[in-house]
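Subject: design request, 256 residues
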């Protein structure tokens, strides 16, 4: 098994959900972790909760901004001197509504965080990893990045775009020894899916959860750690021959 002691991990959207679970999983196997997030209070609370597990640095930044991205990359380099694994994970769900009722502003906001943010992260990190001659990048897409998602078209479009960035980045950087893959979760029990279900079922009748569950062969939502374990695998040397790939982690949903 890969020895993660001293390996330098950076995770955007690290204050909550999947990013926080990935931070915990990497810390538990000895890595050094920087969590990046836009929410200052949640970020500090997460840093304090993770601190007993190992070396964790918290960096406040907006991944959709060039300045924010350059800032968090510079701060990670200052703290760790390099980046071995980059989890390009921050995201927003946007408004749940049919395309005819989506505003251009809502569309732009989702694309700015989920797609532009992913692009800016890649643009900043790829040269650093290429100069190192090693590195693994995991882009968090979604099952909605491979399939359509009625009511979530801007989100689905942004996550399909993440696949294009993943494949292009993998091809551009393979010769330099840098790997880039995307992951595609089905519903995961995090604040994001809670928001989607609240928008679909404002009365809280449970109908939105039931509709999701009916489509998941394993019969449950993912826990954030289910996703974190795949992220650790793709960040490890055990996945040394994997690049440009799309990994579903969806309880069998994509097999239907
Ligand atoms: P979450 O809401 O728990 O966490 C997302 C984090 O991203 C939050 O801490 C938020 O503050 C941060 N963030 C949002 N905008 C940001 C910005 N501009 N700059 C920096 N940080 C920002 O959600 P999650 O479920 O953990 O989502 C993580 C990723 O997983 C997202 O990319 C999401 O699209 C994807 N995903 C989630 C699910 C799910 O069901 N929860 C399914 C498939 C994919």
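Subject: RE: design request

Done. Sequence follows.
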């Amino acid at each position: 098994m890969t020895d993660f002691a001293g390996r330098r991990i950076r995770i955007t959207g690290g204050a909550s959900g999947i990013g926080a679970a990935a931070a915990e999983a990497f810390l538990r196997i000895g890595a050094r972790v920087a969590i990046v997030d836009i929410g200052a209070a949640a970020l500090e609370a997460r840093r304090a909760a993770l601190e007993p597990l190992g070396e964790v640095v918290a960096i406040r930044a907006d991944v959709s901004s060039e300045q924010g991205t350059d800032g968090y990359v510079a701060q990670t380099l200052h703290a760790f001197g390099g980046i071995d694994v980059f989890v390009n994970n921050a995201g927003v769900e946007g408004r749940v509504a049919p395309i005819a009722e989506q505003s251009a502003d809502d569309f732009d906001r989702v694309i700015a965080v989920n797609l532009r943010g992913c692009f800016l992260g890649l643009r900043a990190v790829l040269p650093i990893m290429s100069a190192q001659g090693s590195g693994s990048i995991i882009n968090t897409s979604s099952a909605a990045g491979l399939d359509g998602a009625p009511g979530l078209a801007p989100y689905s479009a942004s996550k399909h775009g993440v696949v294009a960035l993943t494949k292009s980045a993998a091809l551009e950087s393979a010769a330099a020894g840098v790997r880039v893959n995307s992951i595609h979760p089905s519903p995961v029990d995090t604040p994001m899916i809670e928001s989607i279900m609240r928008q679909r079922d404002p009365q809280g009748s449970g109908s939105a959860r039931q509709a999701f569950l009916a489509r998941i062969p394993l019969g449950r939502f993912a826990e954030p750690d289910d996703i974190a374990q795949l992220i650790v695998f793709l960040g490890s040397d055990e996945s040394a021959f994997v690049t440009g790939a799309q990994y579903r982690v969806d309880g069998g949903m994509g097999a239907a």
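The longest helix spans residues 104-132.
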